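To fix ideas, we now present one chain and its tokenised fold:
***
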Amino acid sequence: MGWVYLFFLALVMVRHYPNLARVSALRRLANPWWLAAWVAVIVALTFAGQLEYSSKESWVIPFFILFTLWLMRYLKDRPAPPLVKKVNEYSFGIYLAHPLFFAMVDFVDSYVHFSLPLYAALLLVVGMAGSTWLNALVNRLSWGGMMFGKRLAIR
């Protein structure tokens, strides 16, 4: 339930795409200065020792919203590259399986203590690659689509 806000944000963005600027709240929040300010707050809190880095922390919510809104300004009307199409094929399975792979990174981090850039990179790579791999593996089974959703055929 903690990520339901992203679904509502997606609904608003789809409803008003490609003219996101006509929604004043989206237009204001898509300003890159909001994203820069939030990153500055994250950096300041990091140096003060106030943030715990985990994929489950609530401070990432504004970061995801602001980053998504900022990025949509620049991605509008551009064709999707092959990696985005591949991720889209497995998107529902990635959504379902990524917590498993995030937990694996968190488990290893509890012993190894990764630096923040390495931790973020591992979440991205292990979460996406592991979830895609598991989804591709499960979708080879006749009942696999019932576990992680049927793989989409994206052209």
Q: What stands out?
A: The CA atoms of residues 143 and 150 lie 9 Å apart. The radius of gyration is 17 Å.
